[in-house]
Amino acid sequence: MAHRSSRRGIALLITLMFVIVISVAIGYNLMQVKNASHIVQKEKMLYQNSMILEDVLKILKNSQELQSVVDDNTSENLFVFLSSSKLIPLELPSTHVEISITSARAKLNINALNRKNEPYFREFFAHLMIGNSYIDVLKDCMSKFQAKNEYNNYNSVIFDENPYLFREYIASKQELDIINNFYLNEYGDENIKELDLSKVFRFSADENEKVDLNYASPEVLMLLLDTTKERADAIYALPKPFSSLKELQLNENEKRTLSKFSTSFFEPYVHISIEMKKDNVNSTISFDYDIKQKKGSNFVFDI
């Protein structure tokens, strides 16, 4: 126990140093661009965003704590790091910056929908009072459900109404919004308007991505285990980090359902979100970061 406390103390200290380094680097670069008055406000914000992104990526690549997560190769160090640095608020000259760091594998990739787990997707949406046709529309937007050399074999007319909609996989929340609007208009199911899927799904071309069960929300657990909200809440409340299936205290049906999905207890990927507020302009940068490979991906800029 003393050894674990010592490791956590070291991890917390390095996290504090990590925050200080981010603060100094961002503060310096914001001062550098503060006098660029000839640039219009949004262009100036974009310039600041680019500089901040470059600094944050550099800090991540050189972070001793993240390297220790890789070297240790267990869920504990990653759990301590993410618990200690969920939100980093920075008050800088004329600019407020918030950096949030979360697991990039806390949600289920919506493109993990396949013939093996499709019944559980259907059951999950049935709990939310969403009709079976919704899954059929989702499948239409994933080309893996189409037979080779077979075209226009769709369950719905979504591509008649949206001919330029990407159809290899569901690539973004914006695409899912289009799908939801089509479903609402086509099937008249008002329940879709109340549905917030941002707590459940992420979007990636890699359908084999694993969900890290240490960070899965109750909503995600409902789907992965084909269980009720109350049961998912109880599992979510168990002491973490988990390192084995036994610690989740699952029954046989839940284990059987979970086996239909790709999951693990250590996925060294983090999701970084940087929000900036300056004068009347807000902006957000978000991306995933592979700790082992020291690479960012899925970059999104929003001004």
Q: Determine the number of helices (DSSP H or I, runs of at least 4 residues).
A: 11
- Number of β-strand runs: 9
Strand order of the largest sheet: 1-2-7-8-9
The coarse silhouette is globular
Averaged pLDDT:
84
Spans of at least 5 consecutive residues with low confidence: 35-39
**SSE string, helices as H and strands as E:** HHHHEEEHHHHEEHHHEEEE
Report on the architecture of this protein.
This protein is of the alpha/beta class and 303 residues long. The protein has 2 domains: 2-104 and 268-302, no CATH class; 108-264, no CATH class. Helix content is 44%, strand content 17%. It has 11 helices and 9 strands. The protein has helices at residues 2-33, 41-62, 64-72, 75-84, 118-127, 133-140, 158-161, 173-187, 218-225, 229-236, 252-258, and strands at 87-92, 95-103, 108-109, 201-202, 211-212, 263-264, 269-278, 281-290, 295-302. The protein has a 5-stranded antiparallel β-sheet, with helices on one face. Helix 1 (2-33) packs across helix 4 (75-84) and helix 9 (218-225) packs across helix 10. It starts with a helix and ends with a strand. Residues 35-39 have low confidence and may be disordered.
